[in-house]
Specification:
Aspartate Aminotransferase, domain 1, homotetramer, diaminobutyrate-pyruvate transaminase activity (chains A, B, C, D), Diaminobutyrate--2-oxoglutarate transaminase (chains A, B, C, D), pyridoxal phosphate (chains A, B, C, D), 37% helix, 15 helices, diaminobutyrate-2-oxoglutarate transaminase activity (chains A, B, C, D), alpha/beta, Aminotrans_3_PPA_site (chains A, B, C, D), 2 domains
Amino acid sequence: MTENNTETPEDIAAVPDHSDVAIFGERESEVRSYSRNWPEVFDTAKGVRITTESGEQYLDFFGGAGALNYGHNDDDMKAALLEHIERDGITHSLDKFTVAKRRFLQSFSDKILEPRGLDYKVMFPGPTGTNAVESALKLARKVTGREAILNFTNSFHGMTLGSLSVTGNSMKRAGAGIPLVHATPMPYDNYFGGITEDFQWMERVLEDSGSGINRPAAVIVECVQGEGGINAARAEWLKALSELCKRQDILLIIDDVQMGCGRTGEFFSFEFAGIKPDIVTLSKSIGGYGLPLAVTLFRKDLDVWAAGEHNGTFRGNNLAFATAAVAIEKYWSDDKLQNHTLENGKWLREFFGKLVEKHPEELELRGRGMAFGIAFLKRPELAEEALAECFNRKLLVETAGPNDEVIKFLAPLVITRDELEEGSKICAEVIDELLSK
Amino acid sequence: MTENNTETPEDIAAVPDHSDVAIFGERESEVRSYSRNWPEVFDTAKGVRITTESGEQYLDFFGGAGALNYGHNDDDMKAALLEHIERDGITHSLDKFTVAKRRFLQSFSDKILEPRGLDYKVMFPGPTGTNAVESALKLARKVTGREAILNFTNSFHGMTLGSLSVTGNSMKRAGAGIPLVHATPMPYDNYFGGITEDFQWMERVLEDSGSGINRPAAVIVECVQGEGGINAARAEWLKALSELCKRQDILLIIDDVQMGCGRTGEFFSFEFAGIKPDIVTLSKSIGGYGLPLAVTLFRKDLDVWAAGEHNGTFRGNNLAFATAAVAIEKYWSDDKLQNHTLENGKWLREFFGKLVEKHPEELELRGRGMAFGIAFLKRPELAEEALAECFNRKLLVETAGPNDEVIKFLAPLVITRDELEEGSKICAEVIDELLSK
Amino acid sequence: MTENNTETPEDIAAVPDHSDVAIFGERESEVRSYSRNWPEVFDTAKGVRITTESGEQYLDFFGGAGALNYGHNDDDMKAALLEHIERDGITHSLDKFTVAKRRFLQSFSDKILEPRGLDYKVMFPGPTGTNAVESALKLARKVTGREAILNFTNSFHGMTLGSLSVTGNSMKRAGAGIPLVHATPMPYDNYFGGITEDFQWMERVLEDSGSGINRPAAVIVECVQGEGGINAARAEWLKALSELCKRQDILLIIDDVQMGCGRTGEFFSFEFAGIKPDIVTLSKSIGGYGLPLAVTLFRKDLDVWAAGEHNGTFRGNNLAFATAAVAIEKYWSDDKLQNHTLENGKWLREFFGKLVEKHPEELELRGRGMAFGIAFLKRPELAEEALAECFNRKLLVETAGPNDEVIKFLAPLVITRDELEEGSKICAEVIDELLSK
Amino acid sequence: MTENNTETPEDIAAVPDHSDVAIFGERESEVRSYSRNWPEVFDTAKGVRITTESGEQYLDFFGGAGALNYGHNDDDMKAALLEHIERDGITHSLDKFTVAKRRFLQSFSDKILEPRGLDYKVMFPGPTGTNAVESALKLARKVTGREAILNFTNSFHGMTLGSLSVTGNSMKRAGAGIPLVHATPMPYDNYFGGITEDFQWMERVLEDSGSGINRPAAVIVECVQGEGGINAARAEWLKALSELCKRQDILLIIDDVQMGCGRTGEFFSFEFAGIKPDIVTLSKSIGGYGLPLAVTLFRKDLDVWAAGEHNGTFRGNNLAFATAAVAIEKYWSDDKLQNHTLENGKWLREFFGKLVEKHPEELELRGRGMAFGIAFLKRPELAEEALAECFNRKLLVETAGPNDEVIKFLAPLVITRDELEEGSKICAEVIDELLSK
């Protein structure tokens, strides 16, 4: 299941009858999506496991679509959260200065930005990824005085109009109800299956004054495309992209909403390529505990905003500041989590590598670090079947890709090797059975 | 202060030296706004008061720009929140079924929708007002197959591209960096000062096939314009608008993000006019405790969404569901809060009415219920001066209107009469002194 | 008949059988329009009369929709044309310097621009009105750096995308196949029937920074709206519009494609108001003989074009230059034609005034000079019936207005009083009979 | 010189002093282009030669940018034109049926459409190429209900907003003053110098639902790109494009405004590829004598226009109908002109082939038939120098290409071999001298 599917499974009917779900059927819009394939009522969660109200426990390799890199309800963040609430720490503050925001900013500066030599300003654009993307696009347009944006095939950046216009998925684009303009998609790394140099087209049209491409303000790119099918760009491709942008005086925006916060190993997904983007968006796991928060980062000289030129009621979510500070201090004061992620990622590739050896024409592994995908090359429909069967065996995984042909793991990074093996075995068995039918 | 001002006061320099604010100056983007006029570091809050880290207490008539109708850190919601967290209630769930969401839906259905005869579906579009507006516009376009939207002079609907395109403020619009199209503004009620029939233009262009107006999918309107200057539409105007929409087969969207949840007395700001909009957006105070949440409501027959056609990572914010359910059950099981609001609103108009009698050519009262404004008719710049002086006297109020000429009260609805008097006296004295200089 | 009607009369079947029209039915697109209501095959023409191939003669009060102000095949222009062709004068020259262009420019400068104190540059944008409008909009946007344009209800400016976006007619707009954006219609003079001040809305939204109107580059307006129903703006309204534009630093474009070249008496339709627009478009009768030609005029300081930034293959139509020069020299060296037009216009109003006196609730006279309209106030469908019956009686007239409710005369200005009486009597009788049924 | 150059040579100052050119300097807009490099006042023309007012004769290999395929002032067309004018044949008729239009339609049907098995409807969209393109785009959007268009790198389709949006040249696009949207450029044949399969990108993005390309209504393409640098697409590429369009249910529009009417040998430039486009645009040489005329052709089942949905004052230019009929009857009743063109084209390639052999790294030949280009591969600036020196030696040639690096021949097709040799020798000598400096 990605959220692209338009069929409407009888999600309500499928809920076991120990749960009262009438109100969902009666009141919740048909736009609901995950409940359709996982028709249970969830109640509590801890680490990599979530539990339904009837006590069924599921292993969660879905990870809040990237929002739960530190797992569900981390105890240290929980303690900080409870302490903040108990002492009546201010909850809602718009963009006033608060003690909680200061601690977050200080930790983020000390542990994340400075060690990486990133002299960014931090903007709180409203607490969702799409808000961060909208603010990034606005800023790039303001700085350059240009309107056009280059995006990439199979990109995903969000559902509000600005973000949607740089998103690839045709079903989601159609939802806009107006023609989405100002963005031109370029081929992502390996779009032609390695046969040709994917960069050729992009370089050529930017250098040719007759190409018909409106001169862009910025390029927006994910270092690993999550929704697009766990497509990982190579370091050399990203480096070449960064250099092309510099040469052409175009701003480079890395959308790290899903792939940042350690998903690929390092905190930012672009670090491995040795590049410094002009603008970076973060959300999902930045709050640490699954609470809404987003930040937009940019070079100090790009900070040309007028006061209040972009705002939002919930841009200062102090509960999220409280847990975000703990997340950074706990997990990013050393390189343990980073190494753990890289080792787990390596293990995953080795483990599923055997399955690929068994079905070399059917399967392909995708991704980087703990952004991991298993693509069904010949029978894309099996991915959805695998998802459903994994659910039956108490494992949550999602699908991705333009044809929902990729099983996507975004398991919490804090997962133990045992838990990782547990879920991986389930998934591998399911796939093997499906392919062996 | 509205968030429109482009001057950059030395907010950092103005912070009293008992606070360490270096990190804000170093790292936070120049887009920050409220901190400029209220240069203090806030720490805790309760009811209508917030306290800085050095122990200074402020009376909060700003109310989180409408997100704190129930005051800061309400004890019953706090208890529910702590209980949810302590027992490891699931925090982040996207749109899975959860126990917390079920309780919210049930309460919202029982206490809000059913008693008002509103047979709406409920959509969780992402936890911000602008997300709700974007989803409303998408749905209206999908249902009708048309692109154009009618909005109103001095409207405010949010900062992402779709919402911004239906927003009036020229500074915020310019921030888009692209021409904002597809929306045509119509004159809001009383736009011409009562001299002419404001509806004439809108009716005429819709009926004239040669008017050049693209046939609209929907009209989007606030019953009281908050950012626009606390402009309250009359019941008869709203009723006529609703009828015009029906006659012309255009959907009516009420944006109740700021004016809903009891701000004008009744739960929805449109109830007093006896109309039933096709689509309604809610956010800000719907979470109860100042936590990010938004809902989009619409007639059941308009629920034509494909599964996942609009989504968002934080659309299931269970902490907010927990507090939102308490807010509804506590405050909307009877009409006490509603009556309290209407009485306080009446008191405000009587109290400030005396000030207007003293300065009849300088001042004008605006608004409805506890959406209250005092407009400076001749010397708009005094509003900002009053705001600054109120801050000196430990009262937070905001300004609004195209020229920041209106002092805006969005005090928590749970304010006591004594608290209301306390703050109103400060404000009245400040205004009187300024006008008497 | 305007060209708005979507019904498809059997135009081919209606052609008298002395004519061979099979090829039209077989090959010509259904987009054809005038042939539907005037199903004859025309062959020759002179002055105000055109003759079919079978020798039927029609009195032409339609005047090529404004392209034949000097009548069909004027003898002096014909002589110049023949002489140019016989001596192999260059026909096609793009924008090279030619002897024929020089003569046109000199005559236009000496007889038209200088006597009126209009220090304009002359641009040849391609030989059609819509090309002139497109170039005017481009120039206004280039000069101001803004995108938005204000147009007026029931305006008509052409069929290419730029011109269509500032045109009011909904059927023609729908033909674009994309949402037409960047233009906002304002109420034309007398749009509300004189009850209210039509200017109020426009002035207010331009002065209000919160109105939601994108700051416009220019206002484009016809002094008399032809297609829109022969609506004539008053001098004081045009003067106020001109002053508003100056005050707001917005360029004023007068589209004089149909109403220029003496149609309202003076050469330009704006002269009577004592204003000097920033940009003026001319086409239709500027070529004199019905040959394609267009010019765009603008203040010298606005001539910021790069060489070739707007071009077109037929922008130097030397046959049209040859006839245009004769037209100007013959008809605009003195005020005879102007006076003739004003007197004929006066006579028309007196003559049809009697018909209005007889049917005061049914009819209304419209227009200025020889732009003349008779509106059917209560039974708009009678205008089309009148047109058809006039055709039966050998008179060509057109209809106009959003509901095709206005009979429109654009008779050649060179018409004699006798010819004017002849056609007017036919038309008056037809109307009287229809209203008296 | 293409029309892209932004420098402003002192064209007026350069005119020899036997001519009076003051009025051009005083009144004609700076947008003028060709007069800058050819600062003479032209008076008469015949065949392939034009003569200035002082009697200087130039050999014209520029051919009215494609509008003079039959040369200047062809005697048979001249006779028909004079006869039409002398007998007062109707000149201006909008889209009424006329004798002259019937003859044109009949000849076009008999000599052009039927022999080629093209069952097209014929539309008269206004007498310029850009008008034909605008009508083609409208129709494609109406038929498909989609907005997006695919165009190609270095395309040129016209200067009105719709046509400009599918044009590649960045200087001309910037002239729009608004962001040009709805079109996405694809790589033209051989865009990558033959290294990679240019079709790969286009096929892939159309087939990938996640590519981010809005599903297009149509593809618009020139079989040889004139302004873009005389780039000729291969037959197999065009065939593949046609098949891709069919497979993807996208309409194929061939813009034959410049390359039609025999320029490449056959009447239509697409015939050699054995394809039948859905829509075709023609203008420039279709009128025969250099008079403004344009037609849009389309499959009969696409004729969904409402009457008058696209119109234009000069869409019935009877003088052009008269000459166009003669042109078709004289030149397209047999294959003499076609063969002459192909043979001359072959000769040109042989003749200049020797020059390329002498300077193999500097020069490249381009084009097909009598669309002929000589590209300066290493020193693009020499093309402009060659143009100027050719002018000194009494030969008119133009430059083309994104960097004006291509000398472009669009000599009249009726040119004799002697004339062709005469001009070619001048040009070859000039180039050789420049390269040998």
